[in-house]
Amino acid sequence: MKSVIVESGARFLVALLLVFSVYMLLRGHNLPGGGFIGGLVGAMGFVIQTIACGTESARKALRADPSNIAMAGLGIALLAGLFAALFGDALFTGQWLFIGATEESKGLPLSSVLVFDIGVYLVVMGAILTLVFALEEEA
Amino acid sequence: MGSATGEAAAHGAKPANRRGQGLTWVPAALAAAIFAALWPAIPTVAAGEVLRWGVAWVPSLGVNFSVLLDGLSLTFALLISGIGALVMLFAAKYMEGKYHSGRFALYLFLFMLAMLGLVLADNLLTLFVFWELTSITSYLLIGFGHADAKSRRSALQALLVTGMGGLALLAGFILIYTVVGSFDLAVVLASGDVLRDSPLYLPILILVLAGAFTKSAQFPLHFWLPNAMAAPTPVSAYLHSATMVKAGVFLLARLHPALAGTDVWLWSLTLFGGVTAVFASVMALRQTDLKQALAYTTLMALGTLVLFLADGTSAYAITGFMAFLVTHSLYKAALFLVVGTVDHGTGTRDARILGGLARAMPVTAFAAALAGLSMAGLPPFVGFIAKEVLYKGAGELPLGTIVTGFALASNALMFAVAGIVCLRPFWGRPRGETPVPPHEGPWQLLAGPIILSVLGLALGLMPWLKQQALVSPGVDAVLGRGGEARDLKLWAGVNLALVLSLATFALGLMLYAFHVVLRDGLNRLGARLPSLDAGWDRFLDGLKALAAWQTRILQSGRLVNYMAVTFATLLAGLGAALIATAPGPIMLEMPYLLVKEWGIALLVLAGTGVVVSTNSRITALAGLGVVGVGVALIFVTYGAPDVAITQLLVEVLVVVLVALAILKLPSLEPETGRRRWFDAALALGIGGAVTVIMLMVLDVPLDRRLSEYFEVTSWPEAFGRNIVNVILVDFRALDTFGEIAVVAVAGIAAFALLKTKIAPAKEDAR
Predict the structure, then answer these.
(1) What is the dihedral of CA B475, B479, B485, B490, to 10 degrees?
(2) CA dist., res. B158 & res. B166, Å (int)
(3) Three-class SS of residue A98?
């Protein structure tokens, strides 16, 4: 089932969805969003790519095998949790660094919590795409 | 019973694996070092001191890795490490060049560590952990010749029987904890009165006895022990005579101050111990394999030990217990090693063939004679003293006549068996051709039997040594109070015990003289009795049949049936809970709904209608998607944007995923009439029950403590304003980590399922 309209429309949609997924991931701590939602949106982008252009092209766009992405995400989340142990805190305690903080503003916050959320993002996206590719390639 | 041909054949079939071969002496040396390290503690403990040492292990559960060194544990620890060193020395030579001898040495050593941990534990849970470790290591040892189906069966049987007992024991320990509030032995042993008065006393006792009786192979769960003789002889000598099977007896002795002193304790120990002792000694007479005969006499000894723990008021009985414990370990380990040496030197253990070995194997014969005389209970050996004290103790017990009867019968039979095992193979004329011309074993094989049997004579001549070092402190520990141990004397004057001893000898001589006739008679009788061993197999078969039956019923392979079973179970649970709480009328005011809320409700209803009425899968899926979107809209209206977004995204993805799968499925087959009614009833039931529960939840005031906590702390402590996300990634990050692990595993599992299904198709294509 090839359709020129879907294919060309998908090109824009996929790009938009991927950017949007990262936006959802990053804003998640203060506004609706987060790693889980971001991962779902990102997966959706590649699902559209799959439907429009087939798994070959989606795999090429993804570069890495989706199950590896899921495993890497799990590893990143675990490391983010273990990171707290370096400072003598309980596992999975958030560690924060505020770059350029002044009296009034907190500057640019960096945290192990964000790293953890990136791990969640990758696991969700990787697991869903593993499933979708397997289903699609079965035909 | 099993053939008595040498084990060498069973193990020699495979090419020898020489890895670790040069290091098999290491375990023996380490065991000897442990023995030497324990030795200096003797005077301290004998002076009445109790040594304790420990570190916290799992402090949140009150589990400490702590060591308790008193008379009882020191006696056991010395026996375990001392006999262990000799057995491992024996094993290093016995297994030399055989299949995986290095691994064998390792298993044996691991077992010794587990056993030491068990007897030295000062905490019930620590004790339990080591208890299980002895079961596991003994499984590995019994099944060591795993190429042989009989070995495998015996190993599994021993593991399952002792494992069941282990579970019961754990339950018993937990009940003890609920009564006294601590797993520490010091507390448990001091709370005897509280335990005995507790309503949980009977369950505790039954569970603990189940553990002890399975481990110490009491009738009717004894059958695993003779089967366990499939193991190489060093294992039989070590695990199944001197150490592991005594773990149950040790447990009873250890908990004696806490649990003994009731009628239930008295009767159950007397009956189980007595029946085991007599039954086992009759069975021992029947055996033609020397090792099997010894196995049954071990059962007899275990029964006797249990029997004499039955009553704590008699200091003589407990003294007899301690004396017999040490004595039995010494001569029984020696005799097993003797049988191993005979097996090694002749290639057989069949009592009907062996005879006149003394000429070819003089040293073995000497050790066998000393150990055998001790086993028969003749003066001046330790066996005699132990037997005298046992008879004295038996007379003091409340069930004295019964116990004396049990003891007399089993001692006489033991006397006869001692003759069969230790006398007949070595003296007289050869009765048949042995597979290998008899020859004496090397020194490593002989060291153990000689040292142990000579020790039996030395301690018999100097009973005060054993008394001061081991028996008196042990008695104090079992009774939980000091200074009551009775004296061990070689000559105690003419008394009832001596008369009983003489009667034992007379009866034993008679049994020995006629044992060949008796054996045939017993075999004829035994063939007619039901076999517990076969009963065990039937029990396992029944268990497997039950598992297969319920799998057939519950795992039909049709998704529709799984769903029906799952939801029916859920409905039953919910319904039972609802009926049990018996909710009163729920008074709720119908809230004022806006048009958009009515609209959402209509949308959901319409979607549901489509799902139940269509025969096309894709239409049903679209209908479900509509329901999902409706739910997401409800979340939006009531201010939960995060949940709504997630719901919407998941809903879309599910539709995509299922649509991909559906393309490969046939269209829905309409269910038959009756099934459709059942499904409808189930669906309405679940919906109704959940609705009632939701209304009940709304009926009680909302507890906002958690929400308020997160609202207040989210920004100052976790620097985030989106509470949902802050909870996910910070407050409850560990939970989230568990969840994403599940997501990843689910993705990979589904992938594997899909791929394995298409694999055969690919092969066909080629």
Answers:
(1) -50
(2) 12
(3) strand
Helix-helix angle B315-346:B472-479, to 10 degrees: 120
Residue B38: both structure tokens together = 């324990």
Tell me B422's DSSP state.
I
Mean pLDDT of B691-703: 81
A118 close to A35: Cβ distance less than 8 angstroms: yes
Give the model's confidence band at B761: pLDDT under 50 very low, under 70 low, under 90 confident, else very high.
Answer: very low
Question: Which tops the pLDDT comparison, B81 or B493?
Answer: B81
Per the CB < 8 Å rule, is B751 touching A124? no
Query: What percent of chain A has a predicted confidence (pLDDT) above 70?
Result: 91
Partnered with residue B289 across adjacent β-strands are B350
Q: Give the largest Cα separation in chain A, rounded.
A: 61
ipTM of the complex: 0.89
Secondary structure, 3-state, B559-581 = HHHHHHHHHHHHHHHHHHHHHHH
CA-CA distance, B129 to B113, in Å (whole number)? Answer: 12
What is chain B's length?
766
How do residues B437-462 score in pLDDT, each as one tens digit?
A: 777 878 888 888 888 888 888 887 77
Between CA B299 and CA B309 the distance in angstroms is 16
- Work out the minimum CA distance from A17 to partner chain B, whole angstroms: 12
Q: Residue B52 carries which DSSP code?
A: E
Would you call B747 and A111 a contact, using CB atoms and an 8 Å cutoff? Answer: no
Q: Is the pLDDT of residue B760 over 60?
A: no
Q: What is the pLDDT of residues B212-233, one digit of tens each?
A: 999 888 888 888 888 888 778 8
Question: For B247, how many CA atoms within 13 A lie in the half-sphere containing its CB?
Answer: 36
Pair of tokens at residue B357: 């070995």
DSSP code, position B399: T
For residue B134, pLDDT over 80 is answered with: yes
Which of B515-529, B558-572, B597-611 bottoms out in mean pLDDT, i.e. has the lowest? B515-529
Placement of tokens 């989210």 in the chain: B714
Cβ contact (<8 Å) for A34 and B718?
Answer: no
Residues from chain A contacting residue B726 (CB–CB below 8 Å): 29
Express each pLDDT in B37-76 by its tens digit: 888 888 888 877 778 877 777 777 767 778 888 888 888 8
The H-assigned helical ranges of B14-148 are: 25-38, 41-46, 71-94, 101-120, 124-142
Q: Residue B34 is encoded by which pair of tokens?
A: 């442990």
**How many Å apart are CA B371 and CA B382, to the nearest integer?**
10
CA gap B27, B89 in Å, rounded = 8
Q: Are B458 and B302 in contact (CB under 8 A)?
A: no
Do B109 and B287 meet the contact criterion of CB atoms below 8 Å apart? no
Residue B355 has pLDDT above 80, yes or no: no
Percent with pLDDT over 90 in chain B: 13
- Chain A residues whose CB is inside 8 A of the B645 CB are 32-33, 37
**How far apart are the C-alpha atoms of B533 and B157, rounded to whole Å?**
10
Query: B530 preceded by cis ω (within 30°)?
Result: no
Nearby residues of B194 by Cβ (< 8 Å), 6 or more positions away: B179, B180
- Please give the span between the terminal C-alpha atoms of chain A, in angstroms, as a whole number: 13
Domain ranges of chain A: 4-138
Cβ neighbours around B48 below 10 Å, total: 13
> Which token pair is B342?
């005979």
Min Cα distance B669 → chain A (Å) is: 22
Preferred mutation among B734, B737, B742 to probe A, highest tally of A CBs within 10 A: B737
Distance of CA B263 to the CA centre of its chain: 27
Secondary structure of residue B149 in the 3-state scheme: helix
Report helix angle A55-62 to A112-138, nearest 10: 160
Pairing of strands A108-111, B51-58: unpaired
Q: Is the pLDDT higher at B694 or at B98? A: B694
B442 backbone dihedrals φ, ψ, rounded to 5°: -70, 170
